[in-house]
Design goal:
The chain is mainly alpha-helical. The protein contains 21 helices and no strands.
């Protein structure tokens, strides 16, 4: 029974591990051993730095303080929804879309419950998820697949400005659409406050973690040696807050590695390779969006990147590919899990809203790429 519950709560990890095992049937073991693991380890090491730092910031209540202060003086329902939706948008740029939702969805549920707005919870969670996916698309460390593509900048010869310029049109388009949808929430006075006071529990450690975060960002942007940054992060956390190692969710790292093995194995099958090359030659963006719907956007980026020099189309396509099916992004899976745990969860209502918002976001963001990209 306990094993069954663990599998249900870690379905993506379980599936990715099974797929990695299947790889040994699809291709010879010497092919798997010969994969270029350096790129994936570089991405995993960078993600580990951010995961540890963010877990430390959560432990110090830094993120909770920011969130509570942001909603502390709101007086209308529309304003509350705007803040609850766009906090994940900006948080995701710095802390990844997954972390933004883990922090913001519980806050949204509490605030909407206290305001007598439980009927708005499905809409707000769906919009929060959309906002986190869009906001996280803008920066190299906002989404794991962004980081993977950005770590290939020396292969493709693009700069940070090239990276941001490729993403800005679709991010701006997506943000405008989310803003319009949120403003459609009926305006009325808010009859609840943000709840009890929250304060940073260890200011010294919080400052140290902030410095580590800046160092990690600079490592991504400037190419500072990752091994040095990782050692410093581990050393400081071991010194200041060793319990963080036990409170960090390492799932994304294992999922990333397992899927890397699987998609590379699939890509080494001749018929699959030919299909991907032909599809990417014709429509690299739409191919990236479509593949993301079935594999999730992270493995889609890993699978498609070797078969085209259109890194920008794969990057933008997998970011747009966050939208669509529930498995298109791990952020979608997290949001669904949060909502279905609610006592009065209405799956039909939630998935109806989810479908409408996601189809609209794909259509609008693809249009943004073809018109302004």
């Amino acid at each position: 029974m306990e094993l069954g519950a663990w599998v249900r709560n870690n379905c993506l990890l379980t599936i990715s591990a099974i797929l990695a095992a299947v790889s040994f049937v699809l291709v010879p073991i010497d092919t798997i051993v010969s994969y270029d693991y350096w790129r994936i380890l570089l991405t995993i090491g960078t993600l580990l730095c951010f995961l540890l730092i963010v877990a430390g910031l959560r432990e110090c209540a830094v993120l909770d303080v920011f969130a509570k202060r942001a909603v502390g003086r709101i007086t209308s329902v529309t304003s509350l929804c705007l803040v609850l939706v766009f906090l994940p948008f900006f948080f995701a740029m710095l802390f990844t879309n997954d972390v933004a939702l883990v922090t913001m969805i519980p806050l949204a549920i509490v605030m909407l419950d206290r305001a007598g707005m439980r009927g708005h919870i499905p809409l707000v969670i769906v919009l929060q998820t959309a906002a986190a996916n869009v906001g996280g698309s803008l920066t190299p460390f906002g989404n794991p697949h962004n980081l993977y593509i950005y770590n290939l900048k020396d292969v493709y010869g693009f700069s940070l400005m090239d990276f941001l310029s490729a993403l800005f049109p679709v991010v701006a388009t997506g943000a405008v659409v989310i803003l319009i949808m949120t403003l459609l929430v009926k305006h009325r006075p808010l009859e609840a406050d943000a709840g009890g006071e929250v304060s940073i529990t260890d200011k010294g450690t919080a400052i140290a973690l902030a410095v580590l975060f800046i160092l990690s960002v600079l490592t991504v942007v400037t190419g500072f040696p990752l091994i040095v940054t990782l050692l410093v992060v581990v050393a400081v956390i071991t010194w200041r807050m060793p319990r963080v190692f036990l409170k960090t969710d390492y799932t994304i790292l294992f999922v990333f590695f397992f899927l890397f093995v699987f998609v590379n194995s699939v890509a080494n099958i001749g018929s699959v390779r030919g299909f991907l090359v032909d599809s990417l030659s014709a429509e690299p963006l739409l191919t990236s969006v479509l593949v993301s719907q079935f594999t999730s956007n992270l493995p889609a980026a890993v699978m498609l990147q070797p078969f085209t020099d259109r890194w920008d189309a794969v990057l933008v396509g997998t970011d747009i590919g966050c939208f669509g099916t529930p498995i298109a992004s791990m952020a979608n899976v997290l949001a669904i899990r949060f909502y279905l745990r609610e006592r009065d969860a209405d799956p039909r209502k939630f998935f109806g809203i989810f479908a409408v918002v996601n189809v609209l976001m794909i259509a609008v963001m693809c249009a943004g790429w073809y018109l302004f990209g």
